[in-house]
């Protein structure tokens, strides 16, 4: 398996280094043929190549079996004409990574706020209100006058169908329940289409239980009783917000894994940002990127029928659970270790 690793900005190099050590340990234990190639992304790429991400890197990713994307300082990148490109958007759009799959679960050893739960948010990744990816050219935000701004939301049948199918397939391998999240009472045409397609898709999965909630009510239900949910499917912006909420409810955004998958490519990506305020201090939590990379191994293993990669993914997830349970983690989740040491703790449990 060939992987491209883009450490990125802020805490990216630190958590990427910890993740790479975990990968190396898993490869040794399970006999994985891993080849990892690091490339530049973010501010360092902008300084050296005039762009935060280049077509050359995209070509290398297309030739690889997966991508590990570290955090990028996207708030700093405002002018694409000057090479200030959002790397996450770039890969999601160019590789058609339509499904953002974000598991959230509680961990023994981390105080939970709302009781134990284990759920997955399946978020459509390529359209909706994200104006940097819903137009063939240009931008979906329009400044009509100095005082009037418009944002265009795109919802398509194809994108709704494939994200709904992803959710049902995932639920078939989990606890057999899918929740549709929408705002069809107000956005009758766009969210109405999404909801209708989800309901139609359910007819092909008669053994899967389904329900739906308005997005505002859903936030209350998730905070009140997250254990009732299994797989949650929704459109882009709702999913972005909801998955951050569920990750934080589990104890920390630093515990939320995330994979972006399409028909041919997949990208592991931490749920959080580049956190420049703590960069270089060896206190950043590496678990989100470690868990995201474990998801990538499982995606590849299932796709290629390579059980060793699925087993390695499971071992990494179990190692994270054990390290967290024993307090062998960073301070944000109750541990006393730095970034590198927390990564090494996970490595020790992977190796057993």
How does the SSE layout of this entry go?
Elements: E1 2-6, H1 12-30, E2 35-38, H2 43-49, H3 55-63, E3 66-69, H4 87-94, E4 99-105, E5 118-124, E6 141-145, E7 148-151, H5 157-172, E8 177-182, H6 190-202, E9 209-214, H7 215-224, E10 231-234, H8 236-249, E11 259-261, E12 266-269, H9 287-304, H10 307-325, H11 339-351
Helix pairs in contact: 1-9, 1-10, 1-11, 5-6, 7-8, 9-10, 10-11
Give a quick precis of the structure.
The chain is of the alpha/beta class.
Rg, nearest Å: 20 Å
**So what's the CATH class of the largest domain?**
Alpha Beta
> Mind summarizing the main beta sheet?
10 strands, mixed
Shape: globular
- Supply the helix-strand structural class: alpha/beta
Number of strands: 12
Instruction: Work out the count of structural domains.
Output: 2
CATH superfamily of the largest domain: Isopropylmalate Dehydrogenase
What CATH architecture of the largest domain do you see? 3-Layer(aba) Sandwich
Strand content: 15-25%
Plain-language structure description:
- There is one protein chain.
- Helix 1 (12-30) packs parallel to helix 11, helix 5 (157-172) crosses helix 6 and helix 10 packs across helix 11.
- The protein has two domains: 1-98 and 264-352, Isopropylmalate Dehydrogenase (3-Layer(aba) Sandwich), CATH 3.40.718; 113-249, Isopropylmalate Dehydrogenase (3-Layer(aba) Sandwich).
- It is α/β, with parallel strands linked by helices and 352 residues long.
- 41% of the residues lie in helices and 17% in strands.
- The protein has helices spanning 12-30, 43-49, 55-63, 87-94, 157-172, 190-202, 215-224, 236-249, 287-304, 307-325, 339-351; strands spanning 2-6, 35-38, 66-69, 99-105, 118-124, 141-145, 148-151, 177-182, 209-214, 231-234, 259-261, 266-269.
- The model has no long low-confidence stretch (mean pLDDT 95).
- A ten-stranded mixed β-sheet has the order 2-1-3-12-11-4-5-10-8-9, sandwiched between helices.
- The protein contains eleven helices and twelve strands.
């Amino acid at each position: 398996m060939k992987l491209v690793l883009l450490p990125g900005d802020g805490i990216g190099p630190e958590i990427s280094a910890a993740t790479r050590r975990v990968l190396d340990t898993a490869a040794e234990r399970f006999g994985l043929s891993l080849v990892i190639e690091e490339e530049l992304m973010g501010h360092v790429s902008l300084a050296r190549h005039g762009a935060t991400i280049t077509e050359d890197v995209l070509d290398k990713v297309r030739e690889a079996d997966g991508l590990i994307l570290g955090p990028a300082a996207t708030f700093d990148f405002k002018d694409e004409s000057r090479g200030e490109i959002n790397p996450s958007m770039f890969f999601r759009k160019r590789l058609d990574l339509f499904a953002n799959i974000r598991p959230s679960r509680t961990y023994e050893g981390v105080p939970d706020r709302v009781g134990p739960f284990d759920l997955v948010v399946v978020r459509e990744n390529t359209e909706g209100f994200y104006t940097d990816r819903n137009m063939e050219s240009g931008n979906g935000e329009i400044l009509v006058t100095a005082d009037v701004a418009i944002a265009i939301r795109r919802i398509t049948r194809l994108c709704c169908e494939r994200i709904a199918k992803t959710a049902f397939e995932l639920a078939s391998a989990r606890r057999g329940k899918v929740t549709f999240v929408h705002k069809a009472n107000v956005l009758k045409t766009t969210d109405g289409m999404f909801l209708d397609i989800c309901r139609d898709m359910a007819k092909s999965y008669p053994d899967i239980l389904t329900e739906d909630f308005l997005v505002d009510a859903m936030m209350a239900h998730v905070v009140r009783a997250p254990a009732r949910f299994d797989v949650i499917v929704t459109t882009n912006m709702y999913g972005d917000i909801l998955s951050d909420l569920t990750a934080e409810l589990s104890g920390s955004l630093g515990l939320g894994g995330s994979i972006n998958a399409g028909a041919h490519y997949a990208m592991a990506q931490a749920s959080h940002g580049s956190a420049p305020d703590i960069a270089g201090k060896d206190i950043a939590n590496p678990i989100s990127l470690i868990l995201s990379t474990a998801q990538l191994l499982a995606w590849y293993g299932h796709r290629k029928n390579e059980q060793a990669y699925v087993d390695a993914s499971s071992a990494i997830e179990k190692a994270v659970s054990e390290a967290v349970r024993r307090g062998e983690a960073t301070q944000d989740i109750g541990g006393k270790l730095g970034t590198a040491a927390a990564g090494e703790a996970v490595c020790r449990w992977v190796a057993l």
